[in-house]
TrEMBL record:
InterPro entries: E3-bd_dom_sf (IPR036625), Lsr2-like_dimerization (IPR042261), Lsr2_dim_dom (IPR024412), Lsr2_DNA-bd (IPR055370). This is Lsr2 protein. The keyword DNA-binding applies. It comes from Geodermatophilus africanus. The lineage of its organism: Bacteria, Bacillati, Actinomycetota, Actinomycetes, Geodermatophilales. GO terms for molecular function: acyltransferase activity; DNA binding.
Amino acid sequence: MRMITVMATKTSVVLIDDLDGETPADTTVSFGLDGRSYEIDLSDNNAAEFRDALSKYVSAGRKSGSTSKGRAAVRHTTTDSIDPAAVRAWAKSQGIDVSPRGRIKSDVVEQFRAAGN
């Protein structure tokens, strides 16, 4: 009788804190400045420090509408959102050049989704 061995491969993607480049990131913080929107992956500790640093400006400021005229606000939902680290890992495996931080080009995200991810 012949035995067949089946092996599986599991790939894990770990988000790293964008500020220190070493600590695992626990959260993605979105913020805006001068009409631009940003996201940064941070550990819980660095996210708390970031929020503390901005707290005096936030408490003195006022909420405003959209940061730019004529554009609807981008709304992230669980069905619409993607894992940036997974997209970067996939892009790297496909030979697509993607920066290690910041926004991922929409055509790369579309290719990622078209590949069944």
